């Protein structure tokens, strides 16, 4: 797979906060995780699900790069960091695509719409 426009990894991060006793407690820990993912690891991150649950959160994160190996290495770093921070309390789903693949999907959606 070769792309002249780069690659994108999308991570769907499922987190569990068993010690959270309120939304405020979850928000405090979640805010720290999101801040460090962005600041330390350069990841664009957003909370996408379970906003109203005390002990669960789902984040989506995006990593971009010039080569699949660079993007994969960065995604591996994110997963290792999360595992060190939240052992046994997280699960990550990963998707790696080229920008051209995304453009093809966008073109098909636009043509069908």
Q: How many individual β-strands?
A: 4
The CATH architecture is: 2-Layer Sandwich
Following the backbone from N to C, one meets helices and strands in this order, namely EHEEHEH
State the share of residues found in helices, binned by percent.
40-55%
Q: Beta fraction of the residues?
A: 25-35%
Overall pLDDT:
88
State Rg.
Answer: 16 Å
Helical stretch count?
Answer: 3
CATH topology: Alpha-Beta Plaits
Q: How many strands, what sense, and barrel or not for the largest sheet?
A: 4 strands, antiparallel
CATH superfamily grouping: TT1725-like
Structural class: alpha+beta
Distance between the termini: 29 Å
Give the overall shape, derived from the CA principal axes.
globular
**Spans where pLDDT lies below 50 across 5 or more residues:** none
Descriptive tags:
Alpha-Beta Plaits; four-stranded antiparallel β-sheet; alpha+beta; 113 residues; 31% strand
Task: Compose a concise summary of this entry.
The protein is of the alpha+beta class. The chain has helices at residues 23-41, 68-85, 99-112, and strands at residues 7-16, 44-49, 56-65, 90-98.
Please characterize this protein's 3D structure:
- The chain has 113 residues and is of the alpha+beta class.
- The protein has a single domain, classed as 2-Layer Sandwich (Alpha-Beta Plaits), CATH 3.30.70.
- 45% of the residues lie in helices and 31% in strands.
- The chain is built from three helices and four strands.
- The chain has helices spanning 23-41, 68-85, 99-112; strands at residues 7-16, 44-49, 56-65, 90-98.
- The protein has a four-stranded antiparallel sheet.
- A hairpin with a 6-residue loop joins β2 (44-49) and β3.
- The longest helix has 19 residues, at 23-41.
- 17% of the residues are buried.
């Amino acid at each position: 797979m070769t792309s002249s426009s780069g690659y994108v990894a999308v991570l769907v991060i499922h987190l569990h906060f068993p010690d959270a006793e309120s939304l405020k407690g979850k928000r405090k820990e979640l805010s720290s995780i999101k801040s460090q993912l962005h600041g330390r690891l350069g990841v664009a991150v957003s909370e996408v699900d379970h906003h109203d649950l005390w002990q669960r959160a789902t984040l989506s994160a995006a990593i971009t790069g010039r080569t699949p190996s660079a993007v994969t290495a960065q995604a591996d770093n994110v997963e290792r960091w999360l595992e060190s921070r939240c052992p046994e309390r997280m699960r990550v789903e990963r998707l790696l695509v080229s920008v051209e693949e995304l453009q093809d999907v966008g073109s098909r959606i636009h043509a069908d719409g």
